[in-house]
Design goal:
125 residues; mainly alpha; 0% strand
């Protein structure tokens, strides 16, 4: 049953990642990978909210954590694409964009995760 929940979450997360990435990136005329940045921050916010809900009196069951945390967020977010795009920027001579991608992605991802956990605490505590 657990693996089925992960698969079901990933079935939603993978296309959502692709479609969001394409929609966001098509609106920007920049070498900065805004699509990947957006899906990673959204995934961090979602996972922070889910983790906060689980910590707040068990508001998120283990099944929900598998479905949304492991399945959806696991397929939605992408460390490999983030790494590849950062490397590609650096190799193309856009070192400042590459550095900005690293700093902004880590800072925004952590901020989103903390914001999600704080929101869950406010909602369920």
């Amino acid at each position: 049953m657990n693996w089925l929940l992960v698969v079901l979450g990933a079935i939603v997360g993978a296309p959502l990642r692709y479609l969001t990435d394409r929609a966001v990136q098509s609106r920007h005329d920049s070498v900065f990978p805004w699509g990947t940045f957006t899906v990673n921050v959204a995934g961090c916010l979602t996972l922070g909210l889910l983790t906060g809900a689980a910590a707040a009196a068990g508001a998120a069951s283990s099944h929900l954590q598998l479905l949304l945390g492991t399945g959806l967020c696991g397929a939605l977010t992408t460390y490999s694409t983030f790494s590849y795009e950062t490397l590609r920027l650096a190799e193309a001579g856009a070192v400042r964009h590459a550095a900005a991608n690293v700093v902004a992605s880590v800072a925004a991802g952590l901020g989103a995760a903390f914001a999600g956990a704080a929101l869950a605490d406010a909602l369920w505590a």
